[in-house]
Amino acid sequence: MRTPKLTTIAAAITAILSTLAHAEEMLATAEQDVEVLSVVGKRVSYANNSTDENMQHLQAPIANVLDLVNNLPGVNVGQGDAFGSDDYTTTISMRGFVIDRADQQLGITIDGVPNGGSAYAGGSKANRYLDSENTRYVEVGQGAADIASASLDALGGTLNFVSANPDMQRGARVGLSNGSHNARRYYARYDTGEVFNNTTAYFSFSDSYNNRWIGSGSNGYSDRIHLEAKSVTELDNARITARLSYDDAHEDNYDYRSLAQFKQNPRWDGLTSAWTGNPDIDQNFAEAWSTLRENTLLYVKAEFDVTNTAELDVTPYLHLQNGRGDWLPPYQVYATDAAGNLISKGNGANRTTYNYVDANGQPILDSNTDTSAATRVASYRHTHYEKQRFGVTANLNWTLDNQLIRAGVWLEQQDRNQIRDWHAVLDPKVYHYFDETPYWVQFDDDYQHDVIKFYLQDTLTFGDLQLVLGAQQYLINIERTDNFNPANNGKLDSDSDLLPSIGVVYRLNERLELFAGYAENFKAIPDTILNTAGQEFAELEAETADNFDLGLRYFGDSLNLSATYYNVKFNNRITLLAYEEIDDLPDYLTELDGTFVNVGGVKSDGIEASMEWRFAPNFSLTSSLTLNNAEYSETINGYRAGDKVAAIPEQMLVAALNYHDGSYRAGISGKYTADYYGAAKRAEINGANIWNRDSIPSSTIWNAYFGYRHDADNIAMFRYVDLALTLNNLSNQTYITGGQEGAYLLGAGRTASFTVSLGF
What we know:
With 760 residues, the chain is mostly beta strands. Helices cover 5% and strands 51% of the residues. The protein has a 22-stranded antiparallel barrel. A hairpin with a 2-residue loop joins strand 31 and strand 32. The longest helix is centred in the N-terminal third of the chain and has 22 residues. It is globular, with a radius of gyration of 27 Å. The N terminus is likely disordered.
């Protein structure tokens, strides 16, 4: 697996840009009377791209809103579920940085409001806050991001999901979707139109359901209720935007597989779909692997014209979350204190497990005891998550002659609680019905985060040259309170240094510009580090990344292009030195065993390119190219300098052809992902030390959509009728869609959905 020489690719891209620019001048067509968002991004000093309407058509309304960015350069989204309805197995990678079960190195914001992290334990990705119909577009900053972005995870870039604004015209719309794997979805939205001569608003509701794509019968399901409301009020010198979202999801999970297991059967993740009555088998019962989450997010954004040259926006927000994660251990736990007394709270001094109880219901702790007349037992293990976040962002823009000065602050207080309790399964022979009162509460921990971020940026314009200078800093305090054992309480500061950024944008002419930028990024130390015993916090440093971009953009009447060379150095990579091999059974008793250490970092460089070409009145072609070379920079703790970073695609190519003629629309897209290494940590195989291994096979995934919209006259019952068919993985290819080191997600087979929408 060899990466093409970047200089050769750069030369090829330059030639393509020249050729297509000439073609654009020859084939320029009249612009439509609608706003067109360019996928090549904004005119700024860092690499960025945006989604467009065609990318939304390629995804079913029931699909995860995160899938919208999968065709953008540098980005790879992996979903265990066919419709993305399993947060436990959602992965995102970009330039060697990831969001997965173990790491969260990319920031996510909703209308600029921080999402509260993307970890499975206590985090909330964008799909918890947005329906696809209410998403206007997604801005992706690869590497760097806007300096005002509020995130503690933006080590490798930021994804900002922008919600749709209310319509000026009063009306209602409903949608009904049906699809593969018993998928169904109901959606309704009401727009008030303009009221009080200055306000528009909408309210929406959706109800979604689908079974897991693997297996049949009791193979697990996802069920989601989602509500949104948004209003915009225009005043003389101000605008007030308020938005509320509520999401209630039940998701039965998928399991990760090894490469060998994928080759044995790429359509089975090892979970079962029939209850057997044997806890050793039923611990893998799909309906017992569950994620339950409720998320409520409210913000009010006030934008003011302070003077003719100064603008201020202030956005207070509130986020509430509670949820649960379920597993089904094939035993019960006997925890004791130092004196040997049975305890019902806390880890205690000793813990042992047992599989049987005698006729009197007493645990049989001696494994040599005859159990032929005993009763088998099992547990239903729940991990409870609760979070409250309150914060505010404030940003000032001040224009002075040839300068734009920006300054801002982000403040947040977060309180998070995590409890794990164990419930007795009432009769393992029947089902996993459980005793509502836990027999043992393993831990009860509170976490508090206090966050302060401030920034200052000056943009100076000298004719066609724009110079951007900025700096930002994070001040973060984290505390943990063990409600069972105060000796485990701890706290740490995860402050950043002053993080500089510098960039330039030079316009060669009205359509072509060069840009370059350097930025230092930062990720706060996660609070889970405070769970580890014997941890030397003074030896840990927060993760940082130095990001450099150099590129060009072309904006034409019908053709837009961008190409970026990037170079990133990822420092102080934090790793937990305890890794559970994928083939082993889960360690149900672990809280977070192991020690976090800095293990050097990662160096990556590459090229990202994107194109948007409306080459005929009804046709458009979009494409993106990713060439990424990400390597470990140090030999330490089982990783070797110069090896490829695990589970990061190196070469991706996307092309999408779209047709629109007013009433009819259609499109097809293909994404090619070259083979890459899935693992990099040293392993001894047949007596030899092996580092880079698990060559993930290449894949090409084709998606298509077909749609028809009929706008009725004023006397009809409906304003419009819209029909849409979406097909994903047309060729029904077996492939690995994502994952992390040694643990991979099976890609879903061919999936279809059909949606009928009515406007009133």
